[in-house]
Amino acid sequence: MSTEESTPPAMDIDTTSDNTSIDDKIEDFCENPTRDALTEGLMSLLKPTVDQLDERIRATRICQIELKQRIESLSDVLNKINEALQCPFETDSYVKKLINAKQKITVVSNILQVTQERINKLHQAVEKNTSKRKALLDHSSIYSSSSSSTTHVVEEKEVGTEN
Asked: How far is C-alpha 69 from the chain's CA centre?
């Protein structure tokens, strides 16, 4: 019995075609120009939208911070007026409304901050994925050009041995 007959096949269960991990499919990914073009197209569509959304969230957060500061200063002024008057007006309800508005703005600001952090992570992932894809494409083009020249040399040697 030879060693070739006793050795198990080279392909194990993890490398079969039902495996869906992108890391295991890098070779397939580099060899599919349609998928690369589609991916680049989607990235070029999504990146400006993510950038625009990020800028709008920043602007909204800045406006909310300014509004929060104005509400605080207005609340302070109303409290001073209330203290200065001997016969106080019914400003307590308005102060409470301002405090409630301030709390709501704080909640929305926190939500926007979490959203912006998620967008920043998404932006970083897009950048990382794009650079990784470019590196893979560069590596595959170097490999394909060297393998094609090697194949050409092997073909020339085969032709030379036949003559």
From this structure: 33
Total residue length of the chain = 163
- pLDDT, tens digit (0-9, with 9 covering 90-100), for 23-75: 555 555 556 778 778 888 888 888 888 889 889 999 999 999 999 999 999 88
Query: In terms of pTM, does the model score above 0.85?
Result: no
Amino acid at 157: K
The encoded tokens of residue 112 equal 């926007």
Instruction: Measure the CA dihedral 85/91/96/101, to 10°.
Output: -110
Alpha-carbon distance of 48 to 54, in angstroms, equals: 10
Distance in angstroms (rounded) separating the CA atoms of residues 108 and 60? 10
Q: Are 136 and 67 in contact (CB under 8 A)?
A: no
Q: Residue 39 in contact with residue 130, Cβ under 8 Å? A: no
**Contact at 8 Å (CB) between 41 and 130?**
no
- The encoded tokens of residue 119 equal 């967008």
Tokens of 16: 């079969």
The per-residue b/e assignment along 124-137, b for 16 or more CB within 10 angstroms, e otherwise, is: eeeeeeeeebeeee
Q: How far apart are CA 140 and CA 29, in angstroms?
A: 10
